[in-house]
Amino acid sequence: MANNQTVDGLDTHFFNDVCKNFDHAARFTHHDAGLLDQIKSCNSVYRFRFPIRKGNGFEVIDAWRVEHSHHQSPTKGGIRYSEMVNEDEVMALAALMTYKCAIVNVPFGGAKGGIKINPKRYTEQELENITRRYTVELTKKNFLGPSIDVPAPDYGSGEREMSWIADTYATMNPGQLDALGCVTGKPIALHGIAGRREATGRGVAIAAREAVSVGEDMQKIGLTAGLSGKRVIVQGLGNVGYYSAKFLAEFGATIVGIAEYEGAIYNADGLDVEAVFQHRKETGSILGYAGAKQEFKSSGEGLEQECDILVPAALENQITVNNIRNIKAKIIVEGANGPTTPEAETIFYQNGGIIVPDMYANAGGVTVSYFEWLKNLSHVAFGRMNRRFEENSNLNLVNMVEGLTGVALTPVQRASIVKGASELELVNSGLEDTMIRSYHEIREVFKATDKVDTLRTAAFVGAINKIAVSYKNLGVWP
Ligand code: NAD
Q1: How many CB atoms lie within 10 A of CB 273?
Q2: Which residues does ligand 1 sit against, CB inside 6 Å?
């Protein structure tokens, strides 16, 4: 398969990097070369163009949807709205989705979409037109549907865009009972799920907490176990970055640096993430935030400051051979997809660091998307049937124990024991369980397989083995 390609006259390498990592990991498996090639290849690449009205004229928009693997149905992956989007990038991100779903045991194949626009240059009406037309084009070609391919938000898109997609698809498929399961990341009022908005960032924070909880691993890189007091720099204050920083702070870490495209801020004593977020909302920039002790003109400089953990949560190719030697962090937890190039990763490990790879670290989003899809197919919110029943049972038990022992609980104790689980609590419980289990699955492969050099390789090995089993079960491979 040709890995290197030129897109719009530019040499691109993101898909090539994903394939390089795959090939490296495949050496630690025992599968037939043809099967490995089938797993690695992008099954369907749909590139299309459509016109929209802009001002007094028209503009032609470039768009893609890539379904990387059909070993499970539906396929799943976000839609990126960015003027940097190209075919190579969408293919790479679709491939990462396949491996990511396998790692966290979410039964989907991988996909990704891209719309080549800078959303800031368009009015809300124009963005709606673009999104609805994109949805129509995908529906016409059978690239969208609750059992076919289910998009979600990614860089530059969010709940608003997902609503437009759901509404357009439902309109084109009247009477289809499960139509709203055609997309996830929808607002709660439109059959979204509690906890999806913050799921990726929460998952990143849990991934970091799990990685640093293993004393033996931390000792090897000269750190103590536990998040408490760990200094963290986050790149990107969008959906993933903001929530990663928020939950890392809640779990006891100190956010010392934040980098955005306009520059970076730093304070060794800690930054108040919410205050920085509000400052950016009001002024359009993180620079000028009163609680910062240092400011840097570029996002890149921000990554090179003193810290223990670096969370790149903006875009790919941020950590390369050009800056890896200047990174002070001992742990990189990849919130973004593909932020570290393979060459930079090798150097980082040689220098005694570890990387918690994107395919695992940012899988919280697709995990909760899976819960949302299940909710849409079952047409009932999680907890609706059993919450009150659980509360009544718990209440009976508490009353009985109080009666038998003569010990009366305080109202707060009573409320915390009696309470039945809400949808948000169930979602967060499922997310936490998934992130913790998956980390240890990866770590087991890392420890048990001779010469597996990175957590990423271990994650790939586990994913390849699971996908290979699917193909074999489908009878596609002997
Ligand atoms: P977003 O659009 O909400 O936020 C991205 C942020 O990064 C923006 O604030 C932007 O200004 C900032 N940014 C852009 N270039 C930058 C630079 N050079 N330096 C610093 N900041 C920069 O996007 P998002 O949804 O948070 O996605 C971020 C990354 O996480 C992407 O790689 C995406 O594929 C990945 N991801 C997102 C999700 C999700 O659920 N949204 C799930 C998994 C992975």
Answers
A1: 22
A2: 78, 153-156, 200, 235-241, 259-261, 299, 313-315, 335-337, 362, 365
Residue with CA at minimum distance from ligand 1 atom 4: 238
Architecture of domain 44-190: 3-Layer(aba) Sandwich (3.40)
pLDDT tens figures, 264-323:
999 999 999 999 999 999 999 999 999 999 999 999 999 999 999 999 999 999 999 999
Give yes or no: 293 in active site. Answer: no
- CA dihedral sign of residues 297, 298, 304, 307: positive
Residue type at 25 in one-letter notation = A
Identify the H or E element spanning 263.
Answer: strand 263-266
Q: Give the pair of three-digit tokens for residue 281.
A: 């909302």
- The answer to whether 255 and 273 have CB atoms below 8 angstroms apart is yes
Q: What is the pTM of this model?
A: 0.94
Residue 255 CB-half CA count within 13 A: 30
Q: What's the confidence (pLDDT) of residue 472? A: 86
Q: Which CATH number fits domain 199-361: 3.30.160.250, 3.40.50.2000, 3.40.50.150, 3.40.50.720?
A: 3.40.50.720
